[in-house]
Design brief:
The chain is an alpha+beta fold. It has one domain: Beta-Lactamase, CATH 3.30.450. The chain contains five helices and four strands. The chain has a two-stranded antiparallel ribbon. The radius of gyration is 15 Å and the shape is globular.
């Protein structure tokens, strides 16, 4: 069993450290992704959900692991975000691929 990480006291947290902790220890998968789709930062939950290690995700784009049937909708949502048509990511329940034989749905 993994030991619990040391979490700073609330008094010692800055805005940056609050974000860092919220990002890293979130129970949901979170990532920072470039406009081109490159993974810039990923948390443990998204690694567990997708089945990729942090290093594996950082070496790929979200397009690399998105099922071909879902890619057009994902790319359309990215375009809408970049033009300001939508203000936040829209969860589409897309399938992600670890390999052709391993699928994850709904992250």
């Amino acid at each position: 069993m993994d030991s619990l990480p040391d979490i700073p006291s609330p008094d010692s947290l800055t805005a940056d450290s609050l974000f860092q902790n919220a990002f890293e220890f979130a129970a949901i998968g979170m990532a920072l992704v470039s406009p081109e789709g490159k993974w810039l930062r990923v948390n443990r939950s998204i690694c567990e959900i997708t089945g990729y290690s942090e290093a594996e995700l950082l070496a790929r784009t979200f397009q690399d692991i998105t099922h071909p049937d879902d890619l057009d909708l994902d790319l359309a949502n990215v375009r809408k975000m970049l033009t300001g048509e939508i203000k936040r990511n829209i969860h589409t329940g897309c399938s992600r691929m670890r390999s052709p034989s391993q699928m994850t749905y709904g992250w």
